[in-house]
Amino acid sequence: MSVRHGLLALLAEQPRYGYELRGEFEARTGSPLNVGQVYTTLSRLERDGCVTASGASETGQRYYQITAVGRAEVTQWFTTPVRREDRPRDELAIKLALAVGSEDVDMRAIIQAQRTDSLRALQDYTRLKVRAGAQGTDDLTWLLVLDAMVFQTEAEVRWLDHCETRLVQARRPAPLHQPAGEGAEVTR
Amino acid sequence: MSVRHGLLALLAEQPRYGYELRGEFEARTGSPLNVGQVYTTLSRLERDGCVTASGASETGQRYYQITAVGRAEVTQWFTTPVRREDRPRDELAIKLALAVGSEDVDMRAIIQAQRTDSLRALQDYTRLKVRAGAQGTDDLTWLLVLDAMVFQTEAEVRWLDHCETRLVQARRPAPLHQPAGEGAEVTR
DNA sequence: GGGTACTGCCTACCCGGTAGGCATGACCTA
DNA sequence: TAGGTCATGCCTACCGGGTAGGCAGTACCC
User: Fold this and answer.
1) B12-34 confidence digits (pLDDT tens)
2) B8-29 b/e with 16+ CB inside 10 Å = b?
3) Distant-in-sequence, close-in-space partners of B62: CB < 8 Å, separation ≥ 6
4) Per-window interface: A 57-116 vs B, CB < 8 A
5) Are the beta carbons of A29 and B98 separated by less than 8 Å?
6) First vs last Cα of chain B: how many Å apart?
């Protein structure tokens, strides 16, 4: 529901029209948004009584105003944390999990290819950060969004490394009774 | 497309029926999967020539076999890295990005609530890891999946802390020419 | 005998996301 | 000046992901 709530949050600041919402959303979150989705979402919001639409202005725009119901939903959204449990599937984790159990799959190659791509993304993000910082735009929001992606990607790379070493350990069968030192890792 | 490809990967190992696929998928990936989605996905796979269905057996199960086309799609999936760019929206990042720009929003409270929830999730994960390790199941895949969630959540907490300090810095307007030490952060 | 629970299937419905079509106006260029 | 392109602005159609729920058979237990 990020789109629904995101649009509502923007409408909570001031009335806007669809195309304008798309632009604002992308500029603030850095997340590309298809215009079509804006209009369908707006009609759902109108259906649910969260916004009211004014007829098209003489220049053709349809402005949307938020209602009390909509305002309540926004504050609800802002004050409720995003629970880890109801996040979309992690495609990478699923892929590796299924690959581990399959024969005819070269785990090392998969991990290697993934790490290469993740490191490339990491480079892109740092380049963007440098540019954003240098241009003096000083767009705090944009910098924070970039940081989020950097942090996530770093975690991904670390996890990939972790997987690789774990898989190597598993290849040579476990010692009869695992020597001490394993416990520390488990309770990290 | 994680579901589609995940089911295909399971079918590449051996023929299975819908309900069984749900069970295997959840057991291996730890990701809950609605049965209805399995059946709709299977029919799409059949439509696309990736699998063929046999009529219901005497006990009522419909077994699905993978085809050459399906096999090609699986290996394609396994060998192509998951690109950072085409991942689902990051609801948390979007929320915070929009909150920064809004008045009447208590950023500190939002971040605080989110961190509390993330730390709770982190605790749950470590508990699960301990249990998985202690029971001697030694289910490597499940441990790796748990590690993925741990790494991601740790990154999230770090990012939240990062956001908080950045926002505090931004409140008191930046010094005329930022003192050294900032550059190191940007190019980290 | 009836409640509960599991296996096994299928349909309906909604949201997210993409593609694409349509119209207007600005601006550039042959 | 006519035609190309691009941006603004709207809308619809279509597909995959995801959830809810219904239906039937079996098993098990009180």
Assistant:
1) 999 999 999 999 999 999 999 99
2) bbbbbeeebbbebbbebbeebb
3) B17, B18, B53, B54, B55, B56
4) 77-85, 87-103, 105, 109-110, 113-114, 116
5) yes
6) 34
A5 touches chain B (CB under 8 A): yes
Asked if B84 lies within 8 A of A149 by C-beta distance, the reply is: yes
Name residues 25-44 of chain B with a Cβ under 7 Å from nucleic strand C. 35-36, 39-40
Domain ranges, residue A165: 91-173
**Chain B CA closest to residue A130:** B186
Q: B184 CB near a chain A CB, below 8 Å?
A: no
Answer with the one of A59, A79, A99 that is the final residue of a domain: A79
pLDDT of B33-88, one tens digit each? Answer: 999 999 999 999 999 999 999 877 777 789 999 999 999 999 999 999 999 988 99
Same domain, A67 and A136: no
CATH number at residue A32: 1.10.10.10
